[in-house]
What does this fold into?
Amino acid sequence: MKQLRRIISTGWTNFRRNSYLSFSAVAIMSIALILLLGLVGFNFLTSKTVDSLQGKVDVSIYFRLDAEEAQILSLRDEINDLSNVVSTDYISRDEALELFKARHSEDALIQESLAELDDNPLQASLSIKATEASEFPQIVSVIEDSPYASTIDSIDFFENEAVITRIQSFSNGIRSWGLAITLVLIVIAVFVTFNTIRLTIYDQRKEIEIMKLVGASDWQVRAPYIAEGSFYGLLAGLITLVLTYGILYGLSDRIAALTGDIDLFAYFSQFWLQIVLLVLVVGVTLGVASSFIAIRRHLKV
Amino acid sequence: MIEFKQVTKTYDDEDYIALNDINLEIKKGEFVSLVGPSGAGKSTLMRMLTKESLPTFGQVIVDGVDLADLDKSDIPMLRRKIGMVFQDFKLLSNKTAFENVAFALEVSGVGEEEIAEDVPQLLSIVGLADKANHFPSQMSGGERQRLAIARALIHRPKIILADEPTGNLDLVNSYDVLKLLWKINELGTTIILATHDREIVNTVGRRVITIEKGAIVRDQQGAGRYII
It folds into this structure.
């Protein structure tokens, strides 16, 4: 306990007295951590965008006019049972007509034409949403093999296929490139941070040698530097959090306007605990690990 | 107290011989001046006593312990038994005078209260009572060396190694440092003083060991003088 207090207070004193080096280490680490949070936000934005694109893709089945509703509903139940189907939306012929009338309520000509008809000309339809756009070919093939396939007039998947494929490759691209860029940037940030801390310790190699000559054990030399490293991480983490939340709060409206109503600030607020922990844990780990590795080579006296 | 038995030290695959077959015994409470030109091997000899340097052949025995048998983890314990004073002071630049001395105690796990009591006492012995909160950069050369001596003394070590302690000091300050070492020696501490300063050696006038080219060429047991 006495040792721990001494280590922390020595670490803190060093941190204050090496203010120039501490400042640069904290600044570099803050940049690294802001980058990290930026990437968390970027991943959220891309996955939201991809989700909303995917959500817009559905496949509709149009049934023959003479198809029995009971058969359609059986087919619907069969489709609903598929694990890769999120939801189905059945619109009966009557509902379709109502919707059509409502949509064209201003258009007198259409209203009159409809009144002329004896029979409802609209088809019943079933629109299907899948977990992923890539699941549609499989879903469609199940439908085509179904005993109720004879009730089907057309499936618009074949018209949507090109669009679906493009969205798929686009979203895969965003995801894998986003991940690759994320990793590269994080690796760079870690290297820069590590090197900054290494420089601050290199600057004190003489002191380390002296401590060893005065009879300090490796751990007695190392511990205050590790404490100092954790202070870098802690302070950089706090700066990062304040800046990130401040900027997101200030720019929330503009981000939403830019991204089509994705509320980044709400996302960061919802997961505040995870984000605070992530930043502080990564920051402190980075500081401690860098100090630990950097000091090793100077202890051989 | 200290014994060198057939100690040889070579560097770079035996191309350079720093010490050649040194046999030497230093008894408890002696004040020994180690003299010789730069590069004669004085520092190498001293560095072996703290296991900063290892002999290529032979044995170094300190306080009955063969240093070759000393585990790496026990080196800090050895160094706490030996006080060291260097030409370039080797003070911790980002610590105050008080903290520099206190650090030597902290590494031995001494408590805050004892530190608060012992350090000011020692600082006043070396005449630095009013400089406790100064950093080394704010002190003169003589003050820094006296601070280094205070740090070397704080453990009440059995041996003090002073490697050219007056090398960076003027005559007055050199004499102050010497007086301090004398005083310490009178209290029973073995002192080994390496120097190439004729004035200093002749002033001390105790046992003088002369080293040249890695070998002992002369060992004057009492009232020795610097003769080269």
Chain A touches chain B at residues 2-3, 6, 14, 17-18, 204, 206-207, 209-217, 220, 301 (CB under 8 Å). The mean pLDDT of chain A is 83. The radius of gyration of chain A is 31 Å. DSSP finds eleven helices and four strands in chain A.
